[in-house]
Amino acid sequence: MSLTDIRNRIATAEALAGRAPGSVRLIAVSKVQPLERVVAVLEEGHRVFGENYVQEAQSKWPELRERFGAVDLHMIGPLQTNKAKVAVELFDAIHTLDRASLAEKLARLAQARGACPELFVQINTGAEPQKAGILPEDADAFIASCRGLDLALSGAMCIPPEGEDSVPHFNSLADIARRNGLEGLSMGMSGDFEAAIAAGATHVRVGSAIFGARTYA
Ligand SMILES: *Cc1c(COP(=O)(O)O)cnc(C)c1O
């Protein structure tokens, strides 16, 4: 697969769903990819990337931004509270707001800086015990409490359970977002981004289909 193929597939999925061209943002997930693959995608003109680890992102993106100009950087991995300060300085969006302590920390940082990245509340739609995220039944209260802290929320995000049909999870996330007045829907990865677009995704997070398989050291 190439970036062009993925862009074409997104455009087709938008059209099939009766959605406006360009209504879905493609986040190219570059975690643990060799630098030359990331550079190749930058050279093709792509400027929206996702990373899972603060430290890895910090070691990579300041230089790449100097070289390629503005890059829209999205944090899509679990965020430790003690890395939140670095994260808000580095990232344009955080997709993994998944607990009250992180909300409180981000609210304090936002007040001190007078700015905050776009925030997506991560929902554990499959209620998987090992997975981060707010349980669906707690979502409304959590979203209200974030708003009580003056945090502006952009959307909701989910990672459906592996090996399950993603569609019910996408629909459940869309329901939560709709009833809470959240416009953004961060859902869909290499294997299911077209289904996510059909279900209303505004942000798809695609890694291996663009860059090739990840090899973890
Ligand atoms: C790694 C990752 C992705 C990308 O996964 P692919 O299957 O390679 O497209 C998307 N979202 C999250 C949260 C990830 O951690």
Model description:
The structure is a single chain. Helices cover 42% and strands 15% of the residues. The chain contains 9 helices and 8 strands. It has an 8-stranded parallel sheet with strand order 7-6-5-4-3-2-1-8. It is globular, with a radius of gyration of 17 Å. The protein starts with a helix and ends in a 6-residue tail after the last helix. The relative contact order is 0.16. The mean pLDDT is 97. It binds pyridoxal-5'-phosphate. Pyridoxal 5'-phosphate (PLP)-binding protein, which is involved in PLP homeostasis. Belongs to the pyridoxal phosphate-binding protein YggS/PROSC family. Its cofactor is pyridoxal 5'-phosphate. GO terms for molecular function: pyridoxal phosphate binding.
In short:
The protein is α/β, with parallel strands linked by helices and 217 residues long. Helix content is 42%, strand content 15%. The chain has an 8-stranded parallel β-sheet with strand order 7-6-5-4-3-2-1-8.
Give the amount of beta strand, in percent: 15-25%
- The secondary structure category is alpha/beta
Number of spatially distinct domains: 1
By DSSP (H or I, 4+ residues per run), the number of helices equals 9
CATH class: Alpha Beta
By CATH, the topology is: TIM Barrel
What's the order of the H and E elements? HEHEHEHEHEHEHEHEH
Describe the global form: globular
The distinct ligands, each listed once, are: pyridoxal-5'-phosphate
Q: Unreliable runs, pLDDT <50, ≥5 residues?
A: none
Strand tally = 8
**Average pLDDT over all residues:** 97
Q: In CATH, what is the homologous superfamily?
A: Alanine racemase
Q: Helical proportion?
A: 40-55%
Radius of gyration: 17 Å
* CATH A-level architecture: Alpha-Beta Barrel
Strand line-up across the major sheet:
7-6-5-4-3-2-1-8
Modified residues (N6-(pyridoxal phosphate)lysine): 31
Cofactor: pyridoxal 5'-phosphate
Protein name: Pyridoxal phosphate homeostasis protein
Family: Belongs to the pyridoxal phosphate-binding protein YggS/PROSC family.
